[in-house]
Amino acid sequence: MTLDEIDALEDATDQRYELWHGEPVAMTGGTLRHNLIALGLSRAIYPRLQPGCRVVVADVKLRLGEALDSNATYPDVMVVCDPLPGSYQTRPVLLAEVLSDSSTRRDRVDKHAAYTALESLAAYLILSQQEVLVDVYARAKGWRRVRCEGQEGEIRIAALGLSLTLREVYADVLADLGD
Question: What is the CB neighbour count within 10 angstroms for residue 37?
Answer without folding.
Answer: 28
